[in-house]
Amino acid sequence: MSGAERLPAGSENGGTTTNSKGLDMAIVMSMHWAEATPEQYDTVRDAVQWEEVPGAGGQMHVAWFDARGLHVTDVWESPEAFETFFAERLAPAVQKAGITGTPDTSFHPLHRRYIAPGVSGAA
Questions:
Q1: Which has the closest alpha carbon to 83: 25, 9, 26?
Q2: What DSSP state is assigned to residue 121?
């Protein structure tokens, strides 16, 4: 199985997180994928169409590139929601785009989210 077919490294440390009142909390997913290029990211985005048809449980997505590759920060309702999206929609497009390697992925409980007034949608 290639890296494109596996769930991201670190995804096994997930689980639903609850706050002090026992309510489910969202999680922050951080990913670094050294082998991904901007062109490949755009190819995958166009194929998966997550901006038009969001992944179930996905709440926010931010991506950028630097000399070390692709960086992504997402907010999801749970690690399982991201893992389902990755397995069912993202992995096939990643493989088709030719992205190699395995991303370094981690999940962390969301402490606070702020979105400035008037900010919405894709950019």
A1: 9
A2: S
